Amino acid sequence: MADSVGRGSADPVPAPEAAASARGGSGAKQRLIVALAVALVVQMLFVFSYVGALHSPKPHDVALGVVGSPAIPAALGKRFSLKTTSYSSQAAALRAIDERKIVGAFVVSPTGSKLFVVPAAGPSVASALGTVFSAAAIAFHQKIEIIPVHPLPTRDPSGIVPFLITMALVVGGYLSATMVMAFGGPVTPRRRAAALAGVAVLGALLTATIAGPILGAIPTSKFLVLWGLFILVMAAVALATSALQATLGPPGTLVVVVFVIFGAPAAGGAVPASFLPGFWRTIGPYLPAGAGTNAIRNTIYFDGNAITQALIVLTAYLLVGAVVTVTARRRPPPSPAEAEAEAAAAAAAAAAV
Predict the structure, then answer these.
(1) 340: exposed, middle or buried (C-beta count within 10 Å: 0-12, 13-18, 19+)?
(2) pTM of the prediction?
(3) In sequence order, what are the residues at sequence separation of 6 or more whose Cβ sits closer than 8 angstroms to the Cβ of residue 225?
(4) Strand, coil or helix: 202
């Protein structure tokens, strides 16, 4: 009879177990609230960066070379933001275009006026210059011949390939560092750095192979040069990410996500840098996405001119990241909650492009 009664009644939950269950439920709710707050912050950063940078592109100090009379460029300066530089000859102006000092040149000579535009520096810039100068020529009763130099190939008619490749390398670097941190186990800092360097070599090779021989998006004649440049971009991002994660833990990955969100619109890919607002024009060249895009674009379309600053920026990320990764105090293996946070941050990094 006693057994029957015992089986028919609910066993009371011991007080310690009930308290632990309550604490566990409270902790789960707190983690959920934090996760949702992070999601909202990332969303707001997306709106601020992408919409703020790209919603209303307009020219800002577009670098134009001038040979001869500056009458038309001077008149245009009132409604189209130009930064003009005078050159002694057409050859000097074209050389400045090759060296990436200017994105166009207006040449006045006894035989007529010429406007040299540079599609590889940004089709929108070339198109905008052609449009405003053609309209000005009508107003001034002049005839202007528009001549494209450094045209874009049929494999990249929009000039977006360098940016797309850079973002693939950036995401690959971020994710490889995050995967090593989350799932690499108790590896030494030196082995972590070596693993990231090895992945960068392989990832860059795969990127160059797919974009080059397989898809034909980049010239195979520059395969080795671009492979080396791709290694630098991916390794710089991976080691910089690893350094932040080694010093900050899972929040370091979220800091990197901010770099991705800000770096992509500021890179001058879909919209040239001269058409971005001042803040984005300023930070773009100093973030991995902007430095990588400039270096790859100038290597493909301008024979490697004007890539020194980009190489310095990327090398700085690589060296500082490597030093911090190797010298940082070894962190204990991540807890399940930390591993979950890092996996979520990795997903956010991938979505950020």
Answers:
(1) middle
(2) 0.84
(3) 299, 304
(4) helix
